[in-house]
Amino acid sequence: MFKVGITGNIGSGKTTVCKIFEVLGIPVFYADDEAKKVMVTDDLLIAGIKQTFGNESYFADGALNRKHIAGIVFNNNNELIKLNALVHPAVFRSFDKWVLQFDSKVPYVMKEAALLFESDSYKMCDRTIMVSAPLDLRIKRVTQRDGISVEEVQSRNARQFAEEKKCAMANNLIINDDTELVMPQVLKLHKLYLSLASNK
Ligand code: ATP
């Protein structure tokens, strides 16, 4: 199956762009949502988290003790790296399983992940898209959408690779800066991927 990875820093509009691909009939795997799910469903991951961060990482009913985990990884990059090293492979496993259901029923699939490049997930994709927008616009979008502070958005943004670095790493760009129309950019890439997928 031909796989397209799509990313963008906080508030870039990657989910919005994915919804357009979905309308075109392309299934999208939302890795960040899946990461939350596998933390309570993937037995290997649960065992790894308990071993690394203690049994108190989970409540007796199996729910994740988010406060405990957040207390460890918040502002501690080494611990966050450890957590990601456990969670990312579980999300990869889940993506591989998810892809199987489509067989050859769709021309290609997409994987949306905020940390596509940071997690090395892009290496498993045939092509990658970076959705790009200026920081001030991204801050405006996220503060309006989530009601959080400018500082919080800046702090989350600082934990991701720089915009320019991701743009340089991606095969394709979608500019979502409120001046360029998004739809023609999506249609152009869709056409390209249909062609690349049929030649794979
Ligand atoms: P996050 O990294 O926080 O998950 P994201 O990159 O997935 O964000 P979206 O949720 O798609 O970004 O977009 C952020 C906000 O900006 C949403 O409220 C969305 O509706 C809005 N938005 C994105 N692109 C556009 C656009 N081209 N025109 C108008 N609003 C937009």
Structure description:
It is built from nine helices and five strands. The model has no long low-confidence stretch (mean pLDDT 95). The radius of gyration is 18 Å and the shape is globular. Strands 2-3-1-4-5 form a five-stranded parallel β-sheet, with helices on both faces. Helix 2 packs across helix 3 (43-53), helix 2 (31-41) crosses helix 5 (77-100) and helix 3 (43-53) packs antiparallel against helix 5. By secondary structure, it is an alpha/beta fold. The chain folds into two domains: 1-27 and 105-200, P-loop containing nucleotide triphosphate hydrolases (Rossmann fold); 32-101, P-loop containing nucleotide triphosphate hydrolases (Rossmann fold), CATH 3.40.50.300. It binds adenosine-5'-triphosphate (ATP). Adenosine-5'-triphosphate is lined by residues 8, 10-16, 114, 141-142, 145, 176, 182. The site of adenosine-5'-triphosphate has 14 residues, from helix 1 and helix 6.
